[in-house]
Design goal:
The complex is a heterodimer of chains A (about 350) and B (about 400). Chain A is mostly helical and about 350 residues long. Chain A has one domain. Helix content of chain A is about 70%, strand content about 5%. Chain A is built from 13 helices and 2 strands; from the N terminus they run H-H-H-E-E-H-H-H-H-H-H-H-H-H-H. In chain A, helix 1 runs parallel beside helix 12 and helix 8 runs antiparallel to helix 10. Chain A is globular. With about 400 residues, chain B is of the alpha+beta class. In chain B, the strands form 3 sheets. A 3-stranded antiparallel β-sheet of chain B has the order 1-2-3. In chain B, helix 2 packs antiparallel against helix 3, helix 4 runs antiparallel to helix 16 and helix 6 runs antiparallel to helix 11. The longest helix of chain B is centred in the first third of the chain and has 30 residues. Chain B starts with 14 loop residues before the first strand and ends with a helix. The chains are: A mainly alpha (about 350), B alpha+beta (about 400).
Chain lengths: ~350, ~400
């Protein structure tokens, strides 16, 4: 019973107090960072330094007329934004954002894990659920009954399937090192040295593939504005359009959190700082959560940084990169890892 | 290079995609009808006429000086180049040789507007390929130029700066200083843009081997400007048929043999450097003196002359009153200038009245656009956007 209540609290806190506000801040950050990169100011009128801009944007989305064009496949058109948003939120469930805290609540000794669900197949769960998101894109593109949307949907399905392979291969090499699919174990495994130093190739493959998975530039072909107008979300308006947007940003957060967990030691604080200063347990936990957040925020910044620097790939080049470079490299990395494990 | 051969046995229908007239990549109202097999373009049919404004026909109703305002609207990225081209054509027909200072000012402004045009071209081209930041860097540079234009002509876009026989007015006293400041500032922007794009692997992959035009085709289709020079033909009106003071200036005609989008990109980027070189030379020996032709039958007299002398008053009224204006001798003429996009020619037939009997423009955009189908056939939808960007089609000039 207590476990269930704790889980609910954690879901509430993570989803409504962390992820959704973070998404809003991320949208603002995207605009401000891009403005910084491009020598302009960006939105700075609503609230202090434009802090309330995302709220204003959100309100605008709510008040926009929700147009459902006459030529769409109504049922599929309506469920597509949900299909894309749901898996995006689900993936975060197994990401550990801290260690565990053993404390008394009332008179019972409770272990609070800073993770919504501690699955022993966590990595598999993420790969499985993340793949579901593509259905939203495909269904959205198909049901819109619009040629641009259709092309966008087709591109996204091809792209996501192609890039899940190298993504999976990179994860396999990490799992080979840790010997466990639990994300907590993977983090603990990196106590001595982070995976990014043991698996540099795997890290690069994972990073590139996660850009493709989140449909961010230079891999934003499904929504390539200058070619396909809006891609799969051309026909969507109001909150339905906002759902696609939200999903993209939530996916970005999950991707950053995963990069942190798999390659940058998750909530592990480097250089043995924590061991050296010897704080109370509660503070130790908080600092670890902060460390995790900082690492994740850095990768979120990296996502934004890359988006405003690089041009877009072409469809066939994207496929070539995926199948002809990334998959062979991923396989090579597995072989190298295996040799490494056998030798050392 | 590219994905030209996607032959498989599966029988599929071809999809007709209406690209424009309202589309983020068409920048203006162009319309392309694409026949697609998957994402491969089988045929591209450009439909023009969405921005038809009857500029040429209006030339038969407006006096020559009135028509200058219309030349702004024709190519709204480099209006000054159009002003100069048209004024030059009429002057050649009359036989006016504008004063030296006016020639220098015209050349400086023509080259500045070439830079301004290339900045918009580069910005939108990069934007179409997904590089948003290059777009804003380029536009910021253009902003500086537009400030200069505003300072000189009084307008940012609709400059209407030239008059037949000279200029609307002399440049302000700090003109040279402003231009020098810009010349100091601009190489930094150029360096940043090169850094973002030139050796960028994604940019090269997206542009190399795309939208290819061979040397022969380029000549046969009559394309001009950077598109022609990108196909390895060193033709530039400024060099081959010099006008104004271009025969006295030292500059190079950048040429690239590849004939693809990347070649056009490199040519235009080098043209920016050459334009700066030309402006520097002009500023180095910038002459003093009047900017208008001495014969006030064609140009407005000084205000003192209007107030103090009967001839001045007559010239003034003759020039500005409706239904009057100077008369141009019978004859016909074709004068071409090198506009940022290529050879911009004006063909004027005069019946001896104060208006043209027939005014015809040879717009570089239209001729460059004509070969579009053959450039994109077999390429992908994404390449359509890249090729369109590399041609820098100006819809106003396309439809006139």
């Amino acid at each position: 019973m207590l476990e269930a209540i704790l889980a609910l609290i954690k879901i509430g806190v993570v989803v409504f107090l962390v992820i959704l506000p973070l998404v809003m801040m991320l949208i603002l950050a995207e605009r401000r960072v891009s403005a910084f990169i491009q020598n302009r100011l960006g939105p700075n009128r609503v609230g202090w330094q434009g802090m309330m801009q995302p709220v204003a944007d959100g309100l605008k989305f709510l008040f926009k007329e929700d147009v459902i064009p006459g030529h769409v496949d109504r049922f599929l058109y309506l469920i597509a934004p949900g299909i894309i948003l749901f898996p995006a939120l689900l993936t975060f469930a197994v990401v550990p954002f801290g260690d565990q805290l053993t404390t008394y609540i009332g008179h019972t000794l409770v272990t609070i894990r800073f993770q919504i669900a501690d699955l022993n197949v966590g990595v598999l769960y993420i790969v499985a659920v993340a793949s579901l998101g593509v259905y939203g894109l495909v269904i959205g593109g198909y049901s819109s009954n619009n040629k641009y949307s259709m092309l966008g949907g087709l591109r996204s399905s091809a792209q996501m399937i192609s890039y899940e392979l190298p993504l999976g291969l990179a994860i396999i090499s990490v799992v080979m090192m840790s010997g466990s699919l639990r994300l907590q174990d993977i983090v603990v495994d990196q106590y001595e040295i982070w995976n990014v130093f043991r698996q540099p190739l795997g890290f690069i493959i994972f990073l590139v593939a996660s850009f493709a998975e989140t449909n961010r530039l230079p891999f934003d072909l499904p929504e390539a504005e200058q070619e396909l107008v809006g891609g799969y979300h051309t026909e969507y308006s109001s909150m339905k359009f906002a759902s696609f947007f939200l999903a993209e940003y939530i996916n970005m957060i999950t991707a950053s959190a995963l990069i942190t967990t798999l390659f940058f030691g998750g909530w592990h604080v480097p250089f043995g700082i924590l061991e050296a200063i010897n704080l109370p347990v509660l503070w130790e936990q908080i600092i670890q959560i902060l460390a995790f957040s900082l690492k994740t925020l850095f990768f979120l910044f990296f996502f934004i940084w890359v988006r405003w620097t690089l041009p877009r790939f072409r469809y066939d080049q994207l496929m070539n990169l995926g199948w002809k470079s990334m998959v062979p490299l991923g396989l090579l990395n597995i072989v190298l890892t295996a040799i490494g494990i056998a030798v050392f | 290079m590219g994905m030209t051969d996607l032959s498989y046995d599966l029988k599929t229908d071809q999809m007709i995609l209406n690209f424009g007239p309202q589309h983020p990549a068409t920048h203006g109202t162009l319309r392309l009808v694409l026949e697609l097999d998957g994402e491969v373009v089988k045929r591209a049919e450009p439909h023009i006429g969405y921005l038809h404004s009857g500029f040429e026909k209006l030339g038969e109703y407006k006096t020559y000086n009135q028509w200058i305002t219309l030349s702004d609207r024709m190519n709204y990225l480099s209006p000054l180049a159009n002003n100069i081209g048209f004024a030059l054509a009429v002057e050649t027909l009359i036989g006016i040789d504008v004063p030296e200072r006016a020639k220098y000012i015209r050349v400086i402004l023509a080259e500045l507007s070439r830079i301004a045009d290339h900045m918009v071209w580069l910005g939108t081209h990069a934007l179409d390929i997904g590089a948003f930041t290059a777009f804003l860097y380029a536009f910021e540079a253009r902003e500086h130029l537009y400030n200069i234009f505003e300072h000189v002509t009084g307008a940012r876009l609709t400059t209407s700066y030239t008059r037949i026989g000279g200029l609307f007015r002399d440049v302000p006293h700090d003109f040279e200083e402003l231009v020098r400041t810009f010349l100091k500032y601009f190489p930094g922007v150029l360096k940043e843009l090169h850094g973002l794009l030139t050796r960028n692997r994604i940019w090269m992959d997206r542009t190399r081997g795309v939208g290819h035009i061979s040397r022969e085709d380029a000549i046969n289709w009559g394309v001009t400007g950077p598109v022609l020079r990108g196909s390895g033909v060193a033709y530039d009106v400024r060099r081959n048929f010099p006008y104004l003071i271009y025969d006295r200036l030292d500059f190079e005609i950048p040429v690239c043999d590849d004939g693809d989008v990347y070649a056009r990109y490199l040519v235009r980027m080098e043209e920016l450097v050459q334009s700066m070189k030309i402006i520097e030379q002009c500023l180095a020996d910038f002459p003093d003196g009047p900017v208008n032709y001495f014969d006030h039958k064609y140009t407005l007299p000084e205000k003192e002359a209007v107030y103090d002398s009967i001839e001045g008053l007559i010239h003034h009224f003759k020039n500005i009153m409706p239904g009057h204006g100077f008369e141009v001798p019978r004859g016909e003429i074709y004068v071409a200038t090198e506009a940022p996009n290529g050879e911009l020619g004006f063909y004027i037939v005069s019946d001896g009245s104060n208006r043209a009997y027939r005014l015809r423009v040879r717009p570089p955009s239209l001729v460059n656009f004509a070969g579009f189908d053959r450039m994109v056939r077999g390429n992908l939808v994404s390449d359509v956007v890249a090729v369109l960007g590399s041609l820098n089609i100006i819809a106003g000039e396309l439809d006139r």
